[in-house]
Specification:
- With 252 residues, this protein is α+β, with helices and mostly antiparallel strands.
- It folds into two domains: 99 residues, no CATH class; 139 residues, Gcn5-related N-acetyltransferase (GNAT) (Aminopeptidase).
- The strands form two sheets. Strands 4-11-5-10-9-8-7-6 form an eight-stranded mixed β-sheet, sandwiched between helices. Strands 1-2-3 form a three-stranded antiparallel β-sheet, covered by helices on one side.
- It starts with a helix and ends with a strand.
């Protein structure tokens, strides 16, 4: 069944809960996330509703002042369900350009992935250990990113769990699951570059599926960059299907 614009906006609200910014400000119904400027998702506008009665240019100007006052670049997370329908054109008229194309994928939790390989030990953690964080940051070691992630994880207000696959006692692959209202979002999937192509990401995700089912989730969702071919192959094999896309429109 095709996904409706209403479905997209509902799912986007769930996704925002799983990656919460330090501040969330409402501007004419738009949800404006402001964090430390490290990644786009918690530092962008999620236009899930519109209460501006046609004053789109004025609302964009208000957003720009808000972000620049916080030392951040104005940026909108755009899906086909963004409100109002004229927003895309209004942003283009103000010089915004597209970047960061990604897909949103969904799967039925009960059908996703086989059990973890019995040769791989997978553990679930209430909080990320230092080894979990070290694995997640294997390719992204900036101090600013580490600090931003630490704050973000501490703000997750809905049930969540961290998964880690152990190889010879060390953390080799990690992921995070966040559950709310029958949906579990999987994010922060990362595997040690030296240990890829061994099914470790599938193992940590399978463990999260079991946790999600126990938490009452009927569906799984995740976001993946359009150019991440290995991840897309893994998720398709796991039973995820692409339901809609998004991109960012940012002010130079």
């Amino acid at each position: 069944m095709p996904i409706t614009d209403h479905d997209i906006r509902a799912l986007e609200k769930h996704l925002l809960r799983g990656w919460p910014p330090a501040r969330l400000v409402c501007v004419q119904g738009w949800r404006c996330g402001l964090d430390r400027g490290v990644t786009r998702r918690p530092n962008s506008v999620w236009p899930l509703a519109w209460e501006g009665e046609g004053r789109v240019a004025e609302a964009i100007a208000e957003v720009e002042a808000l972000y620049r006052g916080a030392g951040l670049r104005p940026c909108f997370k755009m899906t086909r369900a963004a409100q109002p329908a004229t927003l895309d054109d209004a942003l283009a008229a103000r010089g915004y350009t597209a970047e960061g194309s990604s897909h949103v994928l969904v799967a039925a939790a009960v059908k996703t992935l086989a059990p973890p390989d019995s040769r791989v030990e997978v553990v679930l953690l209430k909080r990320p250990s230092d080894a979990w964080l070290a694995c997640y940051w294997a390719e992204r070691a900036s101090a600013a990113e580490r600090k931003a992630l630490g704050g973000l994880i501490g703000r997750i207000a809905v049930p969540h769990v961290f998964s880690a696959a152990l190889v010879e006692g060390g953390v080799a692959s990690v992921a995070l699951a966040v559950a709310s209202d029958g949906l579990a979002q999987i994010s922060a999937v990362r595997t040690d570059p030296a240990l890829r192509r061994r099914g470790l990401a599938a193992a940590v995700m399978a463990a999260l599926v079991g946790w999600a089912r126990a938490a009452g989730a009927e569906r799984l969702a995740l976001q993946v960059e359009a150019g991440n071919v290995p991840a897309l192959a893994l998720y398709r094999k796991a039973g995820f299907r692409r339901v809609y896309d998004y991109r960012y429109l940012a002010k130079p």
